[in-house]
Write a structure and sequence with these properties.
This protein is an alpha/beta fold. About 35% of the residues lie in helices and about 20% in strands. A 5-stranded mixed beta sheet has the order 1-4-5-3-2. A 5-stranded mixed beta sheet has the order 11-13-12-14-15. A 5-stranded mixed beta sheet has the order 16-24-23-21-22. The chain is elongated. The two termini are about 25 Å apart.
């Protein structure tokens, strides 16, 4: 395992084509290889690939099945080269240093292995490394025909072996420490040659003399004179190569490599043994033999499943695109690639939906909504898979068509989770999917906007008497509307939320006219200056303003043409140092969890422009606050409990601050705010652990809703 502190430079590699992911973004890989080299009593150093090797890599990948490449594109962080590896290649997992998350695989290939003049020379060198040298015995391996016996063939065969290790994580032999959110594939590989429990020892009928002595690239324990007997014994087993017989992981990788190499790409794989000038052994065509029948069926079905589960058939949700966007990846190029695929497969709703999300992330709203409409015309139910073969929970999300701010982005919180999310985009005519998919609970994720009122009523009627638990039921969602929320939260000790008034444009103009005439207005009609004003329906601070005079209000109305506004009293919540501190808190069944704290010299605080990325001092303060959040939660326990008691929403988020007299100042409460752990771990090492607490609590809460908990497959 390669443990890293900051995942973002590595995750950014996913935005590049696979053949260009050849430069590790941090020193973590070299550190790992240095340690690995010392364990092998040699020096292992990363190298920059030559243009010739780069060209061969591009060619080797280009000939592989598209379904395989699509899987690799979202799981392999890069293909790197090193000197002194002591083997042709290795595959390992990159994970966060605290072990909380695996982010992808790396493959390292040995440059010295490709010093051989041809593919067959490399394959023969590798095979001979298992035996002590003997001038009388020659072992020759053919993996390329004479007219194509070039280095690119060796590179492709070796990559297929390493890719086999990646695909093994989608099967029953996935190592526990290599868990990764790839679609799990049905079937059991290990049973064909190995015990299916315990240490997965070899099945007795598959064993043969001296098998346990087989070791490649190291000091050989076998004499070349034993080769003939070994290959004859091997030919009676279900192993395609000697290398495959070492353990179940190498068996899978070698089976995958030789199957794709011979059956899909039409290339040879043949071993010959010569003693002196006499040819004494030639291997048979393993995949055409009866001993390969079970494994042949297995890999045929595996590749079929891979085709069905490739990227164009997997709904991504918001999380991966938001992560790419936050980490500076080239989303525009990604959108262009998806657009090409979608135009080639115009009935593929999942492709169009993924493309719509990318355009919305790029703030190309009109294009994104048009593409989303096209996707929803094809289908309205989309599945974000769990990170395991059998989900531990299936959550049906009731969504609405629209921009990213229209729905609860729960997939951002439940990244790499055993929870399967079923996104249904509801309509008034059909508020629930028909037929209902299998699910354990329903969560109403659509916002309580004016445009959604009729839809919420339709969803509410359809969920009446629903057999499964409903999280955030629709009749409670109007409680978070700004004016209704401010009314609900009045008269709570230790809590302040100025009354929010919903006023028409004419009412605001009347207030301005009276102010200009020096007349007072009723306090329930509109607060005095300074005040806060924003259009009804606006989000993320759009057209939000602090108004201190009638002239400023007049200028604001000239700029903003909305027919209706929310207006409230401005509260100066600056701290003793003049800075404004705003907190985002998630609440799950009334229990508070800190998401972030932003510090700004501006009263309108947004995390992305508050200088948190630029100021180490601010980040240090945020880290200390998050670490000691329990003090804040205890101080405001009564107010937080009152919020839950009055709103009764299972999951919500609060944007808030503290007033100078120690009250909890509530700006906004909603169920559609984004909560994630996508910020740079090197800049914000304290965040991932805090968000992980919320994710774990949310998953555990879901499991309590099950009448018959789902079990992970063995």
């Amino acid at each position: 395992m390669i443990y890293i502190a900051d995942p973002n430079p590595w995750l950014a590699l996913y935005a590049q084509p696979l053949h260009t992911r050849t430069a590790p973004p941090t020193a973590d890989l070299q550190s790992f290889l240095s340690t690995y080299g010392r364990s092998q009593q040699q020096t292992c150093t990363l190298t920059r690939i030559s243009p010739e090797i780069g060209s061969d890599l591009t060619e080797a990948l280009a000939t592989l099945p598209e379904s395989l490449l699509n899987t690799l594109n979202k799981s392999v962080l890069g293909i790197f080269f090193a000197d002194g590896l002591g083997a042709s290649g290795l595959t390992d997992m990159v994970a966060l240093g605290d072990g909380s998350n695996n982010i992808g695989f790396i493959i390292v290939l040995d440059t010295q292995a490709f010093a051989h003049a041809s593919a067959n020379a490399w394959a023969s060198w590798k095979e001979n490394s298992a035996f002590t040298a003997d001038e009388e015995v020659q072992i020759q391996v053919c993996i390329a025909n004479e007219d194509s016996d070039h280095r690119v063939q060796a590179l492709r065969f070796l990559l297929l072996h390493e890719f086999g290790h990646v695909l093994a994580t989608m099967t029953d032999i996935c190592p526990k420490e290599w868990s990764f959110p790839l679609q799990k594939l049905a079937g059991h590989f290990s049973k064909h040659s190995w015990q299916t429990s315990g240490t997965k020892a070899i099945r007795p009928e598959q064993n043969f003399p001296h098998r346990e002595k087989i070791s490649f690239y190291r000091q050989p324990a076998l004499q070349a004179s034993q080769a003939l007997d070994l290959y004859r014994d091997l030919a009676r087993t279900a192993f395609p190569t000697l290398y495959a017989s070492m353990d179940v992981q190498e068996d899978f990788a070698e089976c995958f490599a030789t199957y794709v190499h011979t059956q899909l790409l039409g290339q040879p794989y043949r071993v010959q043994v010569k003693v002196g000038d006499a040819l004494v052994f030639t291997s048979d065509d393993f995949w055409a033999s009866s001993r390969a029948s079970e494994k042949r069926r297995y890999f045929h079905h595996l590749l079929q499943s891979l085709e069905h589960n490739n990227a164009r058939h997997t709904f991504q949700g918001l999380a991966p695109f938001l992560r790419m966007n936050l980490n500076g990846a080239d989303l525009r190029s990604h959108a262009q690639s998806l657009l090409v695929q979608a135009n080639q497969d115009q009935e593929n709703a999942i492709l169009w939906m993924n493309l719509a999300t990318v355009f919305l992330c790029l703030k190309m709203r009109d294009m994104g909504l048009a593409i989303q409409e096209q996707a929803l015309a094809l289908q309205r139910l989309y599945v974000r898979p769990a990170n395991c073969r059998r989900p531990k929970f299936r959550l049906l999300m009731i969504m609405t068509a629209g921009d990213l701010s229209e729905n609860t982005p729960i997939d951002c919180l439940l990244e790499n989770s055993p929870v399967e999310l079923l996104y249904y985009y509801a309509t008034v005519a059909q508020p629930l999917p028909s037929p209902l998919p299998e699910h354990d609970a329903v969560m109403v994720g659509l916002s309580d906007s004016e445009a959604n009122r009729a839809l919420l009523l339709a969803v509410q009627a359809s969920l009446s008497g629903h057999a499964k638990p409903v999280i955030n039921p629709p009749h409670l969602l109007p409680n978070v509307n700004r004016d209704q929320l401010s009314a609900l939260l009045q008269d709570i000790p230790g809590l302040e939320m100025p009354r929010t008034h919903k006023l028409s444009r004419s009412q605001v103009v009347t207030r301005l006219s009276l102010q200009n005439q020096g007349k007072q207005t009723a306090p329930e009609a509109m607060p005095g200056f300074p005040l806060i004003i924003r259009p009804v329906g606006s989000q993320a601070g759009n057209n939000l303003a602090r108004i201190t005079s009638a002239n400023e209000l007049a200028d604001y109305l000239k700029e903003v043409t909305s027919p209706d506004f929310f207006v409230s009293r401005f509260v100066d919540y600056s701290s003793h140092d003049g800075q404004f501190r705003k907190y985002r808190i998630a609440m799950l069944r009334g229990e508070p969890f800190i998401c972030h704290m932003a510090i700004s010299s501006d009263w309108m605080v947004h995390y992305v422009n508050a200088g948190m990325y630029e100021s180490a001092e601010k980040r240090e303060e945020e880290g200390l606050f998050m670490q000691n959040f329990n003090r804040f939660a205890t101080r405001h326990q009564a107010a937080l409990e009152a919020i839950y008691a009055r709103l009764q929403l299972d999951y919500l988020c609060i944007d808030c601050a503290e007033t100078s007299d120690g009250k909890l100042l509530v700006f906004e409460i909603d169920h559609i705010m984004a909560v994630h752990a996508m910020d740079s771990a090197s800049l914000f090492p304290f965040k991932a652990g805090q968000i992980a607490k919320l994710q774990h609590a949310f998953e555990q809460y879901l499991y309590t809703l099950q009448t018959q908990p789902l079990l992970e497959s063995a």
